[in-house]
Structures are given as C-alpha cells and as structure tokens.
Write a sequence for this structure.
C-alpha cells in the first residue's frame, strides 16, 4: 500500500516523462506493427491486383481459402511441425540445462558450444544441413548406411526440418532454463538429499516445479516460433522439390501467394488465419498454466 | 502536454525536412545539362561486365550521364521490382523478362518506347517479347536465346553412340540414353521439371501449344500437347533418367558437370559461364540442336523456345528523355555489339550474333548450333497472368512427378488453373 501511495504522489510528473521516453517506441509500434496489422485485415477482405491496386470483396478470400485443400495441408504442416519440434525440443533443452548446471569441468565451454547454433545465421545452418541430408551423397545416409531421400520424400521432409529446428533452438532455450534453474535455492536440494530423495526424484519434485514459470515462457515462445516457421523450410525445400506441398508451412504458403503469385489479399487471409491459430494456442496455454505453473517461490 | 506537442512537432519537422531535401535533389537532376545518375537494375551477375561496358561507352559520349549497374538475384528481382513499382521508386532502367512484361506493361508501369526501337532490325520474336498486349513496345529488345542440347562426348564415345546431329529425333534421344546407361552406368538424358528448359520445347515440337493464339486459353488438354507431356514426364520412369527427387537436390547442370549424366537441355545464356567455371570439363562436352519429334501431330517436329530480354523504363520517370536516349543507344547496333563482345548474351539486333559467337573462339564447342535454331524458334509462353499461374502449374507438375495425381487429371488441373487466371 505504501508503495502505491508514493507512486500516486509524484505520478503526474513521472508519467509525463515516462510517456515522452517511450513515445519513439510506441510511435514505431503504431506505424510498423499496428497499422500494417489493420491494413492486413482490410487487405484480406479485398481482391488485390498487381502494383497495390485493391478492391473490397467481402469474405471471398476466406471462402476460397477454406475450400482449398492446399491451405488445409499447409495448416496441418504447421501444426505437425509444432508437434514435432516443441515437446522434443523443450525436453532436450531442459536436460541440457540441468546438465550444464552441474559443476563439471569445462561447463563454460559446453555452454558456449550449446549456444553456438543460435549465433550462426539460419541460412548457413540450413545450407549445411541440406548437404548432410542430401539423399545422394549426404553424410547422414552414409553414416547410418541408409538410403532415404530425407528432404524430397513427403513423409520425411518435415521430420528432417524439425531435427534442424530442434538442433538450432536447444542452446537458446537451455540458456533461458538454466537461468531459471540457477535461481532455485540450494537449500531445497540439501533438504531433499537429507531425506534420501534420489537425483531423479529431485528433478521431478524440485527442479521442474521451481523452473515452471521459465518453462512456461519458453514453451509459449517456441510454440509461436514453430507455428510461424518459414525461413528454415524455405531454405531447405526448394520450389522444384516434389515434397514441397508436404513441407509448405502456412508462412511459406503466404510467401508464395503474396510475393510470387501476387495475391496479396488471399495471402493476408492466410496470415490472419495464422494469427488466429497462434492466438488460440496461446490462450489455451494461459488457461492450462494454472494447473502446472508454480508462481509461489 | 505542451512538451509532447513540441516533440511531436519536431518529429514532423524532421520528416518534412527529409522529404524536402529529397524532392530538391530530383528537381536538379531532371534537366538535361545537369549531371544525371541513373540506376540500372539487372539480375545476372555474369552479364554485369557487358552492361557496364555499354554504360561506359554511353558516358564517354555524354559525360553528364552516369549509369550505375545494380545486380539483384533472379529469386528476389521480381519481388523487389514490384515493390519498387508500387511505391513509385522503380529503377531508372531495368531488365524486363517475357514472363512479367505483360503484367507491367498492361498496368501502365512501363514507358512506351515504340519510337526509339529500330523495328526493322529485330526479329518478330524479339519484338513480341518486348511488346505489351496492345502491340506497343514497352522494352528495347536486348538479347535472344535458344534452348540447346548439351552432351558429354566421352560418354558417347564409351557407349559407341554417334553424337547428336540435325537428324536426331526423340527416339534417338532415348536410345542413346539407354545405351549410355548400359555401357557406363551414367545417366542418359536428364529430363527435369521445367517449362522453358523442359516440356515446352517438346510440346511445340509435337505441334501442341501451352497458350492459344490470343493467349486466353491453355492447351494442356489438346492432343499434341498431351502426347509431348506424357513423353517428357514419362522419361523419369526410365532407369537412365534421374527422378525429380534427385533434381530437387542436384541441379541438372551440376549433375552434368560432375559427369553423372550425359545430356540435358541448357539455355544458351549459361554456356559461356559454364565453359569458364568448369575448365577441367572443356573439350569433354559439346552443343547440339534439339532433337525433333519423329511424328508430330502438326508441323515438322522442330522447335526450340526462344526467349529474349529487353530494357525497360518506368512510365512516370522525370528523366524519361535522358533514359530514352540511353536506351536508344543500348538498342543500337553499336550497343548490341558491345554486350555481345563481352559474352553477355546473343544480341537481339539483326546480324550481330557474330559478336557473341566470337567469344567462343577459344573453346572447342560448336556454338553456331545455338544460333542455327533461331530459324524455328518459338516465342517463350506468356500472358498477363503468367506470374500467377507459373508457380501453380509447376506445383501440379511436381504432384504428377511425385505420383500424387495421374498425368491425365494433372493436365486437366493445369488447364483449369491457366484458363481461370487467363480469362480477364
């Protein structure tokens, strides 16, 4: 109560300066994020022609979109990509974070190594992995003595892309989780080991509940990033790839419709659908968090 | 509140200063005597030297005009050009492609250049490639090209098959491929999913068409087109031809120059760069005319897709008079020979092909085969909605290759895609 009273006291002056300080950011947000967002909504209700000419057409784009099998396949591809990357990726980063938290020799080196993929440009990552996955002379096939067309078979293409996505996201997620883990007081572990709890028991009953707020943020971020995936798939799956339609995510479809075919109105409808999808998934997350996220530390 | 207002005002002021300075710059550059710097957008890095040579010659004659050549990759070129055209920031001079010219011309983006082109010095195809739907010229013809057959002589020798010549038919192509595969284990003719460098050639050889005369309807369900498409797509079922999954990871050119396959169709514009980039392969390969259809439904079975680029300019450019003078030079005999001599491309100007051919003097390839084919060249297929149907037709073709749909329903789908988009 006391703190609040103080804020009110000097509030009027502080507020003004606060507003002035954030004005450039707010202005940027309005001009670069909000305005285009509303423009996208308007565009999704228009039939667009080349060179920025458009005409209001009601819900035509949405009707066309929901009738299009390619669109539903792209939606499924995005969701499938999420299912492939998020659980496995989060689980692995959690394990990496716990391991990096141990007092092993050379922990800093390992931390740097795990974080490295985050520093490399996504395009370079995709190029290298594309070579490794190459069906003819890729290292993966020769290592495992398999003969799989990883990137050109419609069943394996998204799995291959998911492997790369997980590989490049583990380091970043692990660092976030590590920060959360390091905030856990040692006394919990000491008490638990005095009571005879094994390391694994400690992991499930102390580490996970205590790190759950961070875990929650990481999951939300990863889900959003996975539903919006574009650059990785664009780099790995070219337009001459026969598995293209089975790898095409919603954002990839948006890119092709908007910038290659020039249907900006239809493409805007795809974008709005993606926003809606992410919104629903995130809302579900926030509803579900009450069940497992622990905020009383 | 007052302070906020002050800050807002100062931001506004800043913007207006920026825009003022910009418009004043344009004003000074619009007069002819003053110095003008023009931007010239192209997509092929291999042709940069040729373009710069032309620009330098022009600047030597008109010291007040400087032309800056900028290269943007093909994959981003059209995205960038459309965005800049939408924002009225289109480059002063830019390359235009048959795929896109009608879209740009018919929407009033391009300047009418009919009065600066020496129309009697260019072939009908070259002029058609530079025309809008209304028949006016919206580009100065730059170059012309053909699709040719590139083959590996060593593999032919090993298999004891004679080299491709003028009398070769589709049957010779498949027979030679089978013999080479049997004798050397290497792929024969590599038939990959592509329109201009692939099935279009076969379709026109068989007497079919992709678009009808007035460009309003597709010809995918027409019998000669079907015959050719079935032949071409069917080639990937042969042992001696790699499948589309292979081509998705290895471009046919890469396969050819790493000696994995004996033949593929290549555009004439790539040949010089390939001789320069693969010095160890020089002498091992040569160029031939395209094999003909043995039993065409219409015509004599000969065809090659002959495309050509043109130089264009924005219709609303303030420096249009200067630009037109530059383009007139680019389209003159002198300008065209300059780009030919640098090996950039085959000049579109009549009887200047020799300038490009002479670039191949030091290489053991029979380059005149490329220019021989102009006699039966077919204009690259286009209409105003080509950018829209291009990727959709290509997706359908990939589905046929992947076995997701059979060829008959695939062709019907292609027909519908193109028809629906070409109506208006």
């Amino acid at each position: 109560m006391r703190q609040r009273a103080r804020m009110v006291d000097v509030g009027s002056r502080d507020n003004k300066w606060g507003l002035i300080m954030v004005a450039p950011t707010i202005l940027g947000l309005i001009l670069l994020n909000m305005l285009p967002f509303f423009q996208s909504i308007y565009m999704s209700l228009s039939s667009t022609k080349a060179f920025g000419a458009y005409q209001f057409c009601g819900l035509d784009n949405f009707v066309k979109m929901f009738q299009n099998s390619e669109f539903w396949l792209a939606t499924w591809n995005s969701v499938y990509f999420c299912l492939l990357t998020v659980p496995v990726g989060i689980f692995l980063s959690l394990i990496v974070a716990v391991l990096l938290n141990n007092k092993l020799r050379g922990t800093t080196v390992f931390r740097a190594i795990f974080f490295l993929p985050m520093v490399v440009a996504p395009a370079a990552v995709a190029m290298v992995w594309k070579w490794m996955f190459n069906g003819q002379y890729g290292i993966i096939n020769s290592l495992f003595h398999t003969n799989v067309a990883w990137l050109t078979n419609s069943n394996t293409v998204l799995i291959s892309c998911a492997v790369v996505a997980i590989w490049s996201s583990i380091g970043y997620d692990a660092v976030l989780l590590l920060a959360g883990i390091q905030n856990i007081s040692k006394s919990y572990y000491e008490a638990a080991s005095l009571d005879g709890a094994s390391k694994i028991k400690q992991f499930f009953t102390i580490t996970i509940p205590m790190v759950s707020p961070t875990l929650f943020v990481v999951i939300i971020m990863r889900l959003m990033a996975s539903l919006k995936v574009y650059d990785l798939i664009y780099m790995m799956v070219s337009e001459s790839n026969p598995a293209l339609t089975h790898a095409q995510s919603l954002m990839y479809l948006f890119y092709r419709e908007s910038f290659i075919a020039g249907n900006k109105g239809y493409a805007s409808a795809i974008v709005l659908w993606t926003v809606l999808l992410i919104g629903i998934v995130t809302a579900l997350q926030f509803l579900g968090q009450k069940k497992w996220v622990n905020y009383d530390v | 509140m007052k302070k906020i207002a002050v800050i807002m005002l100062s931001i506004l002021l800043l913007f207006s200063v920026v825009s003022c300075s910009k418009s004043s710059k344009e004003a000074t550059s619009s007069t002819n005597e003053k110095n003008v710097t023009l931007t010239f957008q192209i997509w092929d890095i291999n042709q940069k030297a040729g373009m710069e040579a032309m620009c330098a010659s022009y600047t030597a004659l008109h010291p007040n005009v400087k032309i800056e050549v900028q290269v943007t990759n093909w994959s981003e070129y059209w995205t960038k050009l459309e965005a800049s055209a939408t924002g009225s920031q289109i480059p002063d001079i830019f390359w235009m492609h048959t795929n896109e010219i009608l879209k740009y011309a018919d929407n009033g983006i391009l300047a009418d250049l009919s009065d600066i082109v020496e129309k009697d010095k260019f072939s009908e195809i070259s002029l058609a490639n530079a025309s809008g739907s209304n028949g006016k010229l919206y580009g100065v013809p730059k170059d012309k090209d053909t699709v040719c057959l590139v083959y590996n002589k060593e593999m032919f020798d090993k298999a004891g098959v004679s080299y491709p010549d003028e009398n070769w038919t589709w049957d010779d192509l498949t027979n030679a491929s089978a013999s080479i595969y049997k004798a050397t284990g290497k792929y024969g003719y590599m038939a990959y999913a592509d329109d201009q460098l692939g099935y279009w050639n076969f379709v026109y050889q068989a007497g079919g068409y992709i678009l009808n005369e007035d460009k309003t309807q597709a010809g995918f369900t027409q019998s000669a087109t079907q015959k050719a498409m079935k032949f071409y797509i069917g080639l990937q079922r042969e042992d001696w031809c790699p499948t589309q999954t292979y081509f998705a990871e290895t471009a046919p050119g890469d396969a050819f120059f790493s000696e994995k396959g004996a033949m593929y169709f290549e555009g004439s514009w790539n040949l010089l760069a390939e001789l320069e980039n693969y010095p160890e392969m020089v002498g091992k390969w040569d160029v031939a005319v395209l094999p003909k259809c043995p039993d065409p439904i219409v015509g004599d079975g000969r065809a090659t897709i002959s495309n050509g680029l043109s130089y264009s300019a924005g219709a609303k450019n303030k420096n249009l008079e200067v630009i037109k003078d530059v383009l007139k030079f680019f389209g003159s005999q002198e300008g065209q020979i300059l780009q030919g001599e640098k090996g950039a491309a085959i000049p579109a100007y009549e009887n200047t092909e020799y300038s490009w051919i002479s670039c191949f003097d030091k290489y053991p390839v029979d380059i005149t085969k490329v220019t021989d084919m102009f006699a039966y060249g077919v204009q690259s297929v286009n209409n105003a909605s080509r950018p829209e149907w291009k990727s959709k037709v290509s997706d359908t073709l990939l589905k046929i290759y992947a076995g997701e749909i059979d060829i008959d329903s695939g062709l019907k789908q292609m027909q519908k895609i193109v028809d629906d988009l070409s109506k208006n």
In short: Residues 293 and 301 of chain B are 4 Å apart (CA to CA). Residues 34-145+307-351 of chain B form a domain with the D-Maltodextrin-Binding Protein; domain 2 fold (CATH 3.40.190.10). Chain B has two domains: 34-145+307-351, 147-306+376-422.
